[in-house]
């Protein structure tokens, strides 16, 4: 070790102390002999891929390391000063931060972190990731050990949040670091689409961030299992439970980032807003619990800018494995015991062949997967089964049941499926009646709701809500909603039918909800069959054919829904529109109704037209609809039975 510390890298950086080692190489505290400053230096030991010369490997590593340097000015990304080559390998020279701990170590030491602190860390990490995404750089290995917490300039502990290990980042459409089935990432933190062989994207980084924040607030990750293989299967097949220690705001952003379908995943801008809300709440964890064990926690890893106060790890530390050769911390190169032919696994059901097809998950400390598990003959190629027989139906397991914590997606925010008759308020973040709104259940009578679920229809299938391609059942659901609400919609002024399908990826999704809104007004209360006779109603709850009684006190009228089969004060006959910009008080609404409906409903019958509008505020906002009704000229009630038009 003493000899190693005398090494000088690139004629400039003298290695003083090994801070740690991992599958991607070693991190050193070094002295920049030109500037007389302390720096952290990381040696990148990339795996030699098949058919690759060592020179190509060095070039590849240098190319990867240079990407981190593009983010050197960002306050939430570890600063890269230099990228040099020494003895055929690339070295990254970074800022050295005494007192730094990675998030994994912090949680192991302190236990689950408070909601507001997790939100602050998440917001900073997201800001760093987003900066990289804007440059086309994907991190690909976001996890607790790659988020550093360091003192800020005022000396506050953990004041700085820094992303590290951008050395394995990748630009979209750039030559990958993967060949022969290699997948780069950490089991339990990789996005499902990446395990399936998909490209690394900003969305896949966001998924990994969601897992990381879950770990921070709960003390263990949602997909933590005893082995990397089990972690991958959990990631692919199970829906995580919402974090029980998180505030509602933090839970929403975490679960939104954990959507298995990247198209349903919360986007960066929305995640930033939710994290800001969660940080502002000041809520802390309900009760501290002991930190998770190393088997439950995220894989620990020595950061590039580790503190000198931390005890240096020896090379023997990295050989701390169980007898089967597996790294139980999930931190080092995982060298699995040799597996039998693929055919022999078919008796285990469909899951293991799928796992082999996706990746033979062998993950290095720096995030490099080594695809050796798809080989069973000393790396000479994939060992193929003698036959390609499919497993019999009897051998297949029952389908896995998946339910989402947010069945309509995190943006909608509801944690249960909607039911017919329920009322909601809606926040249309993408513009009125565009995209998926954030919905909040409200009382239909007391809360002046904006919308109501009129009916529900069966969702078209487990993948019904993918927004990327048209769904075969989408038009059917739309048609069913339109058909079932048609009669009611014909009685409403400017109705909006909004069809809300469940989010994708659930084997038991809730029904698709058929909701009705008004374009420029609230509903005022329940609609149609959900109203009760004798209860107060607002103009916006009524329509042609409805009957009601009136009560007047100090020139204020209350409308009470009534049966047309009994005597009643008024009957609605239709809607009319008031053009122009006059206020409601200055418009003769009775005259408007007389002009449109009088000839059919009042003349020669002893009846008079009446005109009702919603309220002055909604009138001024553009809801200039007038409900035209008929009442008796002598002030008595209309007889039982609905009136009919003369024509």
From TrEMBL:
Enzyme class per UniProt: transferase
InterPro entries: Kinase-like_dom_sf, Prot_kinase_dom, Protein_kinase_ATP_BS, Ser/Thr_kinase_AS
UniProt keywords, alphabetically: ATP-binding, Kinase, Membrane, Nucleotide-binding, Serine/threonine-protein kinase, Transferase, Transmembrane, Transmembrane helix
Compositionally biased region (Low complexity): 279-309, 390-405
GO molecular function: ATP binding; protein serine/threonine kinase activity
Name recorded for this polypeptide: non-specific serine/threonine protein kinase
Residue sites binding ATP per the record: 42
Lineage, opening ranks: Bacteria, Bacillati, Actinomycetota, Actinomycetes, Kitasatosporales
